[in-house]
Write a structure and sequence with these properties.
It contains ten helices and 14 strands. It is of the alpha+beta class.
């Protein structure tokens, strides 16, 4: 019987590295499982470093390099494996998905200083903004001369970063931006804008992407000078001890203004907050507990499945709101009936004939 010979054995290591460098993360990981000759090549940290830099340009910043090079993170390949797939709130039926990694123990307190945030914004597949923050900033302002405090959870010593407003924009083709109807601006932003917000636990060495990559919604806020608000985010499954409904919604809101005369988007601010299924904002410390559990959530590279989970969450939210409205109306009718009954009983002796 003729023995099969792997053709990659005849290739030198430099050529294999050049071949692997042309693949994306999923293809490179799959290639490493097919041949013992390729496996050591696909574990080369320089390959994963380049792949992370091309996917998240913020990882090339000095602050990110220092974090990702630490022993707790486990290298760029682990960061990519944690950050590239998106959070999947519902496990698909009849799918061979791995079991959801469980949080070692329900934590009652999470320190803000344990986290770092890695932010990248893309427009038409080009990165227009990359930043690394300590902690989880509530609001990122893009006004010249103003500072942004990464103060979430009542920390007394927030770190600050300064931005130049003139550099916080991305160009839009003049023939596509100037004079367009408002509805086309919505389509333009929804089609070409992408955002990544990777949360990194510096102590545990785990990371998770809190964004949806694509916008979940685009609207214009006329009360805020007509600025456009683009929402990204995810649905985070949590333990019942953290939230009774076992799920929370992470919302990343990016505010920008279309400068028609200059032909570009000018960024105003980016904010992040957590809300429960009723739409109520969650406090700072409880929000940290939620994002901490996001580190152990199920992930998927299939964005359609992620969007389907988001839609199911919104349907569940609408059903709960309908049920709450019905209960409120029922309570109002019962209260009104009791008042009418009491009024009639009190008035009855006075209307009786003598």
């Amino acid at each position: 019987m003729e023995q099969l010979v792997c053709g990659f054995n005849s290739l030198n290591n430099d050529l294999l590295l050049d071949i692997m460098a042309r693949l994306d993360g999923s293809a490179m990981a799959s290639a490493g499982c097919t041949c013992s000759t390729i496996l050591p090549v696909t574990r080369d940290q320089n390959l994963w470093r380049q792949l992370c830099h091309s996917t998240w340009p913020s990882t090339a910043l000095q602050e990110a390099l220092h974090l990702l090079s630490s022993s707790s993170i486990g290298g760029f390949h682990r960061f990519y494996a944690d950050s590239y797939p998106l959070i999947l709130c519902n496990k698909p039926v009849n799918e061979n998905y791995p079991k959801t990694p469980k949080c070692p123990k329900p934590e009652t307190h999470v320190c803000l200083s344990d986290f770092a945030s890695i932010l990248d914004i893309y427009y038409k597949n080009e990165c227009v903004l990359s930043k690394v923050f300590d902690g989880v900033p509530e609001v990122v302002n893009f006004y010249q001369g103003n500072n942004m405090g990464c103060n979430c959870g009542g920390e007394t010593n927030p770190s600050y970063h300064q931005y130049d407003e003139n550099n916080c924009h991305c160009d839009i083709d003049d023939d596509q931006s100037l004079g367009l109807p408002t509805t086309l601006y919505y389509e333009e932003l929804a089609k070409h804008l992408r955002l990544s917000w990777v949360l990194l636990d510096k102590k545990k060495g785990k990371a998770v992407n809190l964004s949806s990559w694509k916008p979940l919604s685009v609207r214009r806020n006329w009360l805020n000078n007509g600025n456009y608000e683009i929402h990204f985010g995810c649905i985070i499954p949590v333990d019942e001890g953290v939230l009774p409904h076992k799920s929370a919604k992470c919302i990343i809101s990016a505010t920008c203004k279309i400068m028609q005369n200059a032909g570009h988007l000018k960024w105003k601010e980016i904010s992040i907050h957590i809300e429960d299924i009723t739409g109520a904002h969650i406090g700072a410390q409880q929000s940290l507990l939620v994002v901490n559990q996001a580190l152990y959530s199920l992930r998927s590279k299939n964005h359609l499945e992620v969007e389907k989970g988001y839609q199911l969450y919104e349907e569940k939210k609408r059903e709960m709101m309908k049920k709450k409205v019905f209960q409120d109306k029922l309570a109002d009718w019962l209260c009104m009936s009791i008042h009418i009954t009491v009024f009639v009983i009190c008035l009855y002796p006075f209307v009786l004939p003598s």
